[in-house]
Amino acid sequence: MKELTVISGKGGTGKTSVTGSFAVLAEKHVLADCDVDAANLHLILNPQVQHRESFPGMPMVEIITEKCTGCGLCEQLCRYGAIKDGAVDEMSCERCLVCYHACPEKAVQLVDNVAGEWFISHTRYGPMVHARLGIAQENSGKLVTEVRRRARTLAEEQGKNLIITDGPPGIGCPVISALGGSDLALVVVEPTLSSIHDLFRVLELTEHFKVQTAVCINKWDINPDNTREVENICHNKKVTLAGRLRYDPAVVAAAMEGKPVIRLPSTVAGDIVSLWDCVRQELGV
Amino acid sequence: MIIAVASGKGGTGKTTVATGLVLVLRDSGHKVAYLDCDVEEPNGHIFMAPQCNESEDIFIEVPEIEQDKCALCGKCAELCVFNALLVTSDEVITFPELCHGCGGCRYFCPAQAVRSGRKKIGTVERGTAGRAVFVRGELQVGTALSPPLVNAVKKNQLSRGINVMDAPPGTSCPAVATVRGADFCILVTEPTPFGLHDLALAAQMAKSLGVPCGVVVNRAGDGRELIENFCLQEGLPLLMKIPLSRTIAEAGSRGVPLNQAEVGWDRMLLLLYSDIKGLIMSERAYGNQR
Amino acid sequence: MRIAVSAVGPALDSSVDERFGRCAFFVVFDEQTGDTEAIPNDGVNAAEGAGIKSAGLLLRNRVDVIVTGRVGPKAMQALLAGRLAVYTGVEGTVAQTMEQYRSGSLSPLGVPNARSHNGITSKEKPVK
């Protein structure tokens, strides 16, 4: 079993459009959307949810008004300023439970907290595991782990030999959870100064985790000079340059139609096909 | 005045809008500060070209165990929901990188064996870009906890003047920490189903924080009124549209701010500001009535 | 000696789990009594620090040897501080892995072989 993880330091570089097209081109694969904060893959693959499960977060606290004597101990102990006038602000609370343990009246109770949901779905481009995390919920790393685990189980059950993962942006905890143990990380970058700045941080990360890495430059022709710079970075860091995708309005048009861009007649489709060929060779599938 | 610039989706042009706004306000004589709260990937300096002359390390409180006082009762590890402590048969080991600084271990230790230590989570840099104040936070790589750093950046807000805060993308804790307490939140999006989906999440976040918001559409083209319809439906003001333009995209890729990318944008950004000011005023008036 | 194997299920014929911190069960053999017991791993639900929580669980259950697949640096530090011997190379079922361990074909692990789950640290510190 092989796993390809598509990532990008900076958000909005075209990660999901690339992943969506790979879903069309690949065979015998399972899809996993690990961008659990802002999942988008479902918008172009139109999944039919077949199984859904809620994802528990760390328990929340609630103050039982009848029991509270207003001693103010909880307010004084809370480092996050989450308790004011005997009420807990859910958005500030870190769920450390200090108030729960400290309250002399046992007026603080635990309440279950649903942090998000994950789904197993059917799409015309293969089965897909995806998830949605609630606003201001922690645990995105754990939800990513859960999505990847379900995708792996599903692939084993259905005899698939490839998992294509749409990773989260950034370099934080969720990305690390999405990368660990992956066979190939494909970094989608744009030839902009911001994206190049973030590429360094991502390459540092993949190097650190010893994940084989390839880079793809999206909209390479909007700034050929910066594109050359990215190519030089890849060369110096001995990272494979898997392909260049040209700027093509078809990408947005396809998103509007809710389709993978490769399904529309376009010039960029050829670029994506050769990118996929290269990625496939790197992966050995 | 505090204006936060946020977006559900990454790469929609948050920084482009935020820096453009700050630069035109500066050039028209306003007292203005740009605060980069995207501490994982701060990018605002690329457009602002600031001179930073001050740097402050930011710490959070983490436990230190006085092993000679410790009775190895295990209470601290039992209470720590972040699993930052481990009690073995002869010592307590701490894992500061997991600590969220809640102080529970110190408060509850029956032997008073927990001392307060500190751990660096990042730095806040202060400087100027012309007459504008520039502040940014940079998270130390390998740190999971960013809200305290975001709050440290926010401490540098001007008490009189306009503060523009560049929020991290998404709707997770650091984004919430940035938008909380702002007078207004600009939500930057793009007219695609992706942009719309993530805009809805960001709008929900601003709403639950009680921060009024409005929408800026970037890369506007044939959007089939996706965003317009959403704004109508949700009663959100559509503040500005930046067209899908190769000139602007190329300028952005070279680090040229929006107000210098094409003629006319300085005026557009000033209009954006006066619209926001109006919305804040009416929100206050309406809020007072309530 | 009490030997634990990270596993997907609680039984001898359960599949092993490569992950240390986030496995569902530890199946523990007591060499003195010949008993087997399964301990549900509450570390599996931790947002962060699952490996440390699991290490604490093993310590409380007086486990001497852990046989698993991947151990992160923090969990490794925790296990070694608790004086557990760590073996890797789980394969197949719990029973098969135990056989392998008894036959001496597994080698003890000196340094962590899974990477930190908390961003990049500038320099990796090998655990002694």
Overview of the molecule:
The complex is a heterotrimer of chains A (285), B (290) and C (128). Chain A is of the alpha/beta class. Chain A contains ten helices and 13 strands. In chain A, strands 3-8-9-2-10-1-11-12-13 form a nine-stranded mixed sheet, with helices on both faces. A two-stranded antiparallel ribbon of chain A has the order 4-7. In chain A, α5 packs parallel to α6. The longest helix of chain A is centred in the middle third of the chain and has 18 residues. The N and C termini of chain A lie close together (9 Å). Chain B folds into two domains: 224 residues, P-loop containing nucleotide triphosphate hydrolases (Rossmann fold, 3-Layer(aba) Sandwich), CATH 3.40.50; 46 residues, Alpha-Beta Plaits. Chain B has a nine-stranded mixed sheet, with helices on both faces. By secondary structure, chain C is of the alpha/beta class. Chain C has one domain: Nucleotidyltransferase, domain 5, CATH 3.30.420. Chain C is built from three helices and five strands. Chain C is globular. Chains A and B meet through α4, α7 and α9 of A and α4, α7 and α9 of B.
